[in-house]
Specification:
about 150 residues, alpha+beta, Immunoglobulin-like, five-stranded mixed β-sheet, four-stranded antiparallel β-sheet
């Protein structure tokens, strides 16, 4: 009489391990594809070193820096100079020493590029590669003044 041999799933543990590792590889590959080729979000600060401000109070630029205020445009271009996105500076807040005025900004859903050129108002561009941004966890700090 022939014995009916059934195999339980855990008896093929190497096959199960192979399937799990293969599945994880696929999941991570898809995730990296979208991270490398999809849009990104960038958080930033813009610090104005120009005047004395009241500590921890709202602030903005004046005189030669009067264009640096809440609502000033933050423009991002790719390496060819095409505009990828535009955002605004948030409200400026003096630091705890009253020496600097710090503005926050967020750039959401920025199209993929190898190079990003950032410009606040008309103050010149600061260039980052996508790799540099990734190393900074997509957070940048820009500044102007003494």
């Amino acid at each position: 009489m022939a014995k009916n041999k059934t195999t339980k799933w855990y008896e093929n543990r190497y096959l199960v391990i192979f399937i799990i590792i293969g599945g994880l590889f696929v999941v991570f590959s898809i995730g990296n594809f979208f991270k490398e080729n999809g849009n990104i979000n960038i958080a930033g600060t813009f610090t104005l070193y120009a005047n004395s401000y009241d500590e921890n109070k709202p602030c903005e630029g004046d005189g030669g820096y009067s264009d640096i205020n809440q609502g000033a445009k933050v423009t991002v271009r790719n390496g060819e100079g095409d505009i990828l996105t535009v955002s605004d500076l948030g409200e400026g807040l003096a630091d705890e020493f009253g020496a600097d005025c710090v503005f926050n900004f967020n750039l959401n859903d920025v199209p993929n590029s190898k190079v990003y050129q950032f410009e606040v108002s008309h103050r010149g561009e600061v260039v980052y590669s996508k790799q540099q941004l990734a190393e900074k966890d997509f957070k940048i700090n820009l500044s102007l003044g003494d």
